[in-house]
Amino acid sequence: MTAVRPLTPEALVEVLADRIADTAPGSRLRVLVDGAPAARPEALADGLVDPLRLRGRAVQRVSARDFLRPASLRFERGRTDPDSYYEDWVDMDGLAREVLDPLEQAGSGEVLPTLWNAETDRASRAAYVPVPEGGVVVVDGTLLLGRWLPFDLTVHLHLSPAALRRRTEPESHWTLAAHERYAEQVDPLSAADIVVRADDPRHPALVVG
Protein backbone atom coordinates (compact mmCIF):
# COMPACT_ATOMS: atom_id res chain seq x y z
CA MET A 1 0.00 0.00 0.00
CA THR A 2 1.34 3.42 -0.93
CA ALA A 3 0.76 6.83 0.57
CA VAL A 4 2.08 10.32 -0.11
CA ARG A 5 3.88 12.59 2.31
CA PRO A 6 3.47 16.28 1.42
CA LEU A 7 6.64 18.31 1.91
CA THR A 8 7.94 21.76 1.23
CA PRO A 9 10.60 21.87 -1.50
CA GLU A 10 13.20 22.61 1.19
CA ALA A 11 12.09 19.68 3.34
CA LEU A 12 12.16 17.37 0.32
CA VAL A 13 15.81 18.23 -0.30
CA GLU A 14 16.67 17.50 3.33
CA VAL A 15 14.85 14.15 3.28
CA LEU A 16 16.56 13.09 0.07
CA ALA A 17 19.96 14.29 1.27
CA ASP A 18 19.56 12.21 4.43
CA ARG A 19 18.63 9.14 2.38
CA ILE A 20 21.54 9.57 -0.01
CA ALA A 21 24.09 10.36 2.71
CA ASP A 22 23.06 7.26 4.66
CA THR A 23 23.39 4.99 1.61
CA ALA A 24 26.65 3.04 1.43
CA PRO A 25 28.69 5.45 3.58
CA GLY A 26 32.37 5.28 2.73
CA SER A 27 31.66 4.07 -0.80
CA ARG A 28 31.26 6.02 -4.02
CA LEU A 29 27.60 6.43 -4.91
CA ARG A 30 25.85 7.02 -8.25
CA VAL A 31 22.53 8.86 -7.88
CA LEU A 32 20.02 9.64 -10.62
CA VAL A 33 17.39 12.39 -10.48
CA ASP A 34 15.08 11.53 -13.37
CA GLY A 35 12.14 13.53 -14.68
CA ALA A 36 10.64 15.28 -17.65
CA PRO A 37 12.22 18.67 -18.40
CA ALA A 38 9.02 20.28 -17.12
CA ALA A 39 9.72 18.77 -13.68
CA ARG A 40 13.18 20.40 -13.65
CA PRO A 41 15.21 17.45 -12.35
CA GLU A 42 18.36 19.56 -12.70
CA ALA A 43 17.08 21.99 -10.07
CA LEU A 44 16.54 19.24 -7.51
CA ALA A 45 19.92 17.70 -8.34
CA ASP A 46 21.62 21.08 -7.89
CA GLY A 47 19.79 21.59 -4.62
CA LEU A 48 21.22 18.37 -3.20
CA VAL A 49 24.85 19.42 -3.59
CA ASP A 50 25.36 21.62 -0.54
CA PRO A 51 23.23 19.51 1.85
CA LEU A 52 25.20 16.41 0.89
CA ARG A 53 28.50 18.20 1.40
CA LEU A 54 27.30 19.34 4.83
CA ARG A 55 26.66 15.67 5.57
CA GLY A 56 30.26 14.82 4.73
CA ARG A 57 29.82 13.52 1.19
CA ALA A 58 31.87 15.02 -1.62
CA VAL A 59 29.65 15.70 -4.65
CA GLN A 60 30.18 15.82 -8.39
CA ARG A 61 27.27 17.04 -10.53
CA VAL A 62 26.68 15.62 -13.99
CA SER A 63 23.84 16.31 -16.42
CA ALA A 64 22.68 13.95 -19.15
CA ARG A 65 22.22 16.96 -21.43
CA ASP A 66 26.03 17.11 -21.55
CA PHE A 67 26.06 13.56 -22.92
CA LEU A 68 23.85 14.05 -25.96
CA ARG A 69 24.82 12.36 -29.20
CA PRO A 70 25.94 14.50 -32.17
CA ALA A 71 23.17 16.35 -34.01
CA SER A 72 23.64 14.19 -37.10
CA LEU A 73 22.54 11.19 -35.03
CA ARG A 74 19.93 12.89 -32.84
CA PHE A 75 18.12 14.42 -35.79
CA GLU A 76 18.57 11.60 -38.30
CA ARG A 77 14.78 11.00 -38.20
CA GLY A 78 13.94 14.70 -37.90
CA ARG A 79 14.11 17.26 -35.13
CA THR A 80 10.70 16.48 -33.68
CA ASP A 81 10.55 12.68 -33.82
CA PRO A 82 9.43 11.35 -30.40
CA ASP A 83 10.91 7.90 -30.95
CA SER A 84 14.28 9.42 -31.76
CA TYR A 85 13.99 11.61 -28.66
CA TYR A 86 13.33 8.50 -26.59
CA GLU A 87 15.92 6.22 -28.16
CA ASP A 88 18.69 8.26 -29.74
CA TRP A 89 19.30 11.58 -28.02
CA VAL A 90 21.39 10.60 -25.00
CA ASP A 91 24.67 8.73 -25.45
CA MET A 92 23.88 6.03 -22.89
CA ASP A 93 27.11 4.14 -23.59
CA GLY A 94 29.14 7.31 -23.11
CA LEU A 95 27.35 8.16 -19.86
CA ALA A 96 28.01 4.68 -18.52
CA ARG A 97 31.60 4.53 -19.74
CA GLU A 98 32.69 7.99 -18.60
CA VAL A 99 30.64 8.53 -15.43
CA LEU A 100 29.09 5.39 -13.97
CA ASP A 101 31.46 2.52 -14.71
CA PRO A 102 34.53 4.31 -13.25
CA LEU A 103 32.75 4.35 -9.88
CA GLU A 104 32.50 0.58 -9.72
CA GLN A 105 34.53 -0.94 -6.91
CA ALA A 106 37.38 -1.76 -9.28
CA GLY A 107 36.98 1.42 -11.35
CA SER A 108 39.38 4.31 -11.70
CA GLY A 109 37.24 6.69 -9.60
CA GLU A 110 37.70 9.40 -12.24
CA VAL A 111 34.67 10.71 -14.14
CA LEU A 112 34.20 12.94 -17.15
CA PRO A 113 31.69 15.64 -16.12
CA THR A 114 30.77 16.56 -19.71
CA LEU A 115 31.23 14.75 -23.03
CA TRP A 116 29.43 16.77 -25.72
CA ASN A 117 28.49 20.43 -26.15
CA ALA A 118 25.14 20.37 -27.95
CA GLU A 119 25.28 24.10 -28.75
CA THR A 120 28.54 23.85 -30.67
CA ASP A 121 27.96 20.20 -31.61
CA ARG A 122 31.51 19.38 -30.60
CA ALA A 123 33.23 17.36 -27.92
CA SER A 124 33.44 19.37 -24.71
CA ARG A 125 37.09 18.42 -24.11
CA ALA A 126 36.49 18.38 -20.36
CA ALA A 127 39.11 16.98 -18.00
CA TYR A 128 38.54 13.94 -15.83
CA VAL A 129 37.66 14.64 -12.20
CA PRO A 130 38.53 12.28 -9.32
CA VAL A 131 35.69 11.24 -7.03
CA PRO A 132 36.99 10.32 -3.56
CA GLU A 133 35.83 7.31 -1.58
CA GLY A 134 32.48 8.21 -0.08
CA GLY A 135 31.85 10.74 -2.86
CA VAL A 136 28.53 11.02 -4.67
CA VAL A 137 27.90 11.68 -8.34
CA VAL A 138 24.43 13.20 -8.82
CA VAL A 139 23.17 12.87 -12.39
CA ASP A 140 20.03 14.58 -13.69
CA GLY A 141 18.26 13.56 -16.84
CA THR A 142 15.11 12.58 -18.68
CA LEU A 143 13.88 9.12 -19.71
CA LEU A 144 16.88 7.42 -18.07
CA LEU A 145 15.26 4.67 -16.03
CA GLY A 146 14.99 1.21 -17.56
CA ARG A 147 18.21 1.65 -19.53
CA TRP A 148 20.39 -0.75 -17.52
CA LEU A 149 22.51 2.18 -16.39
CA PRO A 150 24.25 1.17 -13.13
CA PHE A 151 22.87 3.73 -10.70
CA ASP A 152 22.93 2.92 -6.99
CA LEU A 153 19.94 5.09 -6.05
CA THR A 154 17.29 6.57 -8.34
CA VAL A 155 14.78 9.38 -7.78
CA HIS A 156 11.93 10.01 -10.21
CA LEU A 157 9.98 13.26 -10.35
CA HIS A 158 6.50 12.24 -11.46
CA LEU A 159 4.11 14.50 -13.33
CA SER A 160 0.56 13.43 -14.11
CA PRO A 161 -0.26 13.51 -17.85
CA ALA A 162 -2.29 16.69 -17.36
CA ALA A 163 0.48 18.43 -15.40
CA LEU A 164 3.10 17.28 -17.90
CA ARG A 165 1.14 18.78 -20.79
CA ARG A 166 0.40 21.97 -18.87
CA ARG A 167 3.99 22.55 -17.79
CA THR A 168 5.65 21.58 -21.09
CA GLU A 169 6.29 24.46 -23.46
CA PRO A 170 3.99 24.29 -26.52
CA GLU A 171 6.95 23.99 -28.89
CA SER A 172 8.00 20.83 -27.02
CA HIS A 173 4.61 19.09 -27.03
CA TRP A 174 5.96 16.72 -29.66
CA THR A 175 7.98 15.07 -26.83
CA LEU A 176 4.83 14.09 -24.92
CA ALA A 177 4.48 10.89 -26.92
CA ALA A 178 7.94 9.83 -25.75
CA HIS A 179 6.97 10.40 -22.11
CA GLU A 180 3.78 8.40 -22.65
CA ARG A 181 5.85 5.55 -24.06
CA TYR A 182 8.22 5.81 -21.07
CA ALA A 183 5.30 5.54 -18.65
CA GLU A 184 3.96 2.48 -20.44
CA GLN A 185 7.18 0.61 -21.13
CA VAL A 186 9.32 1.50 -18.11
CA ASP A 187 6.75 2.47 -15.45
CA PRO A 188 9.10 4.82 -13.59
CA LEU A 189 6.74 4.86 -10.59
CA SER A 190 7.79 1.26 -10.00
CA ALA A 191 11.30 1.41 -11.45
CA ALA A 192 12.64 4.24 -9.27
CA ASP A 193 13.84 3.75 -5.70
CA ILE A 194 12.24 7.05 -4.65
CA VAL A 195 9.25 8.71 -6.30
CA VAL A 196 8.25 12.34 -5.82
CA ARG A 197 4.94 13.62 -7.11
CA ALA A 198 5.76 17.02 -8.56
CA ASP A 199 2.60 18.30 -10.27
CA ASP A 200 2.91 21.51 -8.23
CA PRO A 201 6.59 22.42 -7.74
CA ARG A 202 5.65 24.42 -4.64
CA HIS A 203 4.05 21.37 -3.02
CA PRO A 204 5.95 18.16 -3.81
CA ALA A 205 4.92 14.91 -2.16
CA LEU A 206 7.10 11.89 -1.39
CA VAL A 207 5.53 8.57 -2.29
CA VAL A 208 5.86 6.22 0.70
CA GLY A 209 5.53 2.45 0.53
Concise description?
The chain is an alpha/beta fold and 209 residues long.
Can you give a write-up of this model?
- This is Uridine kinase.
- The protein has a single domain, classed as 3-Layer(aba) Sandwich (Rossmann fold), CATH 3.40.50.300.
- Helix 1 packs across helix 2.
- The strands form 3 sheets. The protein has a 7-stranded mixed β-sheet. Strands 4-7 form a two-stranded antiparallel sheet. Strands 5-6 form a two-stranded antiparallel sheet.
- It is 32% helix and 21% strand.
- With 209 residues, the chain is α/β, with parallel strands linked by helices.
- The chain has 8 helices and 11 strands.
CATH top level is Alpha Beta
CATH superfamily: P-loop containing nucleotide triphosphate hydrolases
Q: In percent terms, what proportion of residues is strand?
A: 15-25%
Number of domains: 1
**What is the β-strand count?**
11
**Total number of helical segments?**
8
Largest sheet: 7 strands, mixed
- Listing every helix as H and every strand as E from the N terminus to the C terminus, the arrangement reads EHEHEHHHEEEEEEHHHEE
Shape: globular
Whole-number average pLDDT? Answer: 97
CATH architecture annotation name: 3-Layer(aba) Sandwich
Uncertain regions spanning at least 5 consecutive residues: none
Radius of gyration: 17 Å
In CATH, the topology is named Rossmann fold
- Identify the strand order in the major beta sheet: 1-11-10-9-2-8-3
**Structural class, judged by helices and strands?**
alpha/beta
CA-CA gap between termini = 6 Å
InterPro entries: P-loop_NTPase
Protein name: Uridine kinase
